[in-house]
């Protein structure tokens, strides 16, 4: 049998202000399962400021963490990250590299793949190993109508995976592993200069426990105020279908669905949303789904735990009143 040229699974550990993004723990969970069937180690690379939580990556399943500490890593500069990740990949030669399909991951992973002249499958929803030990990258295609199974001929085999697709690796504070500092590569003439970072949303919708989402049943952008009021009373945030994002009723940060955010809240209230497959792709795993729609045959009712056939302009004010009265 010929010796493998590439071995191991590398997970990119995204961080902000030194705190690891939870998608990393999901990737480590899946990475461990794949590694066990391949009998190879799981590596993680974390680039960030001093005092990053690198041990957490060991507790969550990495066998070795490579970390680089520089203030420059606090800027989401894909070119800087790319240089450092490519250098590590060329050094340790993993057979698989996994990135979270976050805004940053989606921008970074193709640059790394381009530099290494290898393939990349974006937005995977499942990963498996075939009988030849190759990675099968599974993702919805053609508006979610088929699940494409993709194999990459070149190494490393690279994929981005949607946030909240896999469960997080359980934390084992006793777990041992190796932590290796890497010499960070800094760019003398960065091609990207961050002038200002804008806070795009008051809260990350993917993390919210309650989402009150509006669709084309709303008559104007102003009517989102009603949804915002209900969301605030329930300690949640506002979501939207693509139809109203395209109408400019609300910004795309709020979009839920196949080409928007994936959410898994405890409660999802769909107001005037028909329930197209592309919308369901982003919210069907909510613990409790309440749908308000005038059309009793709207597909959203097929997955709703509670269906209210009615006009949202009557039902939502009633709900707001009821909650206010209970609070009083
Ligand atoms: P509609 O389908 O028009 O539904 C409006 C609903 O409101 C109807 O069911 C109607 O009965 C109800 N209604 C009307 N008036 C009232 C009222 N007064 N009170 C109560 N109910 C009322 N869509 C997404 O949402 N997210 C995505 O990420 C996404 N990605 C896509 C990706 C691709 C590649 C494609 C092709 C499409 C994508 N779509 C996505 C679009 C999707 O197919 C639907 O067009 C969209 O979800 C419809 O939005 P909607 O339910 O708000 O509008």
From TrEMBL:
The Electron transfer flavoprotein alpha/beta-subunit N-terminal domain, residue ranges: 9-202
Cofactor note: Binds 1 FAD per dimer.
Known cofactor(s): FAD
Binding site for FAD: 216, 241-242, 255-259, 272-279, 293
Pfam families to which the protein is assigned, alphabetical: ETF, ETF_alpha
Keyword terms: FAD, Flavoprotein
CDD domains found in the cross-reference section: ETF_alpha
Single GO MF descriptor: electron transfer activity
Family: Belongs to the ETF alpha-subunit/FixB family.
Name of the protein this chain belongs to: Acryloyl-CoA reductase electron transfer subunit beta
Protein's organism: Clostridium formicaceticum
Encoding gene (name): acrA_1
């Amino acid at each position: 049998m010929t010796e493998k040229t590439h071995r191991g699974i590398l997970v990119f550990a995204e961080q902000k202000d030194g705190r690891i993004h939870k998608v990393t723990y999901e990737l480590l969970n899946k990475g461990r399962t794949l590694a066990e069937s391949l009998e190879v180690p799981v590596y993680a690379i974390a680039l960030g400021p001093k005092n990053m939580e690198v041990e957490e990556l060991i507790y969550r399943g990495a066998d070795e963490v490579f970390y680089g500490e520089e203030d420059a890593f606090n800027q989401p500069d894909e070119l800087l990250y790319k240089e450092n990740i490519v250098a590590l990949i060329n050094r340790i030669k993993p057979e698989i590299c996994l990135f979270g399909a976050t805004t940053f991951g989606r921008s970074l992973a193709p640059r790394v793949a381009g530099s290494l002249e290898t393939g990349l499958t974006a937005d995977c929803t499942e990963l498996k190993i075939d009988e030849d030990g190759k990675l099968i990258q599974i993702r919805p295609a053609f508006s979610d109508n088929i699940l494409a199974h993709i194999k990459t001929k070149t190494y490393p085999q690279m994929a981005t995976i949607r946030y909240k697709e896999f469960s997080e690796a359980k934390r084992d504070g006793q777990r041992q592993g190796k932590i290796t500092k890497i010499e960070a590569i800094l760019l003398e003439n960065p091609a990207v200069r961050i002038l200002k970072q804008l806070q795009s949303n008051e809260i990350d919708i993917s993390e919210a426990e309650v989402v009150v989402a509006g669709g084309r049943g709303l008559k104007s952008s102003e009517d989102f105020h009603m949804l915002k009021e209900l969301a605030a009373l329930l300690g949640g945030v506002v979501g939207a279908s693509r139809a109203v994002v395209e109408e400019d009723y609300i910004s795309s940060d709020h979009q839920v669905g196949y080409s928007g955010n994936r959410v898994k809240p405890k409660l999802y209230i769909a107001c005037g949303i028909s329930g197209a497959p592309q919308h369901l792709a982003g919210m069907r795993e909510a613990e409790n789904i309440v749908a308000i729609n005038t059309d009793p045959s709207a597909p959203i009712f097929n997955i709703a735990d509670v269906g209210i056939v009615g006009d949202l302009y009557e039902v939502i004010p009633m709900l707001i009143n009821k909650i206010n009265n209970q609070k009083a």
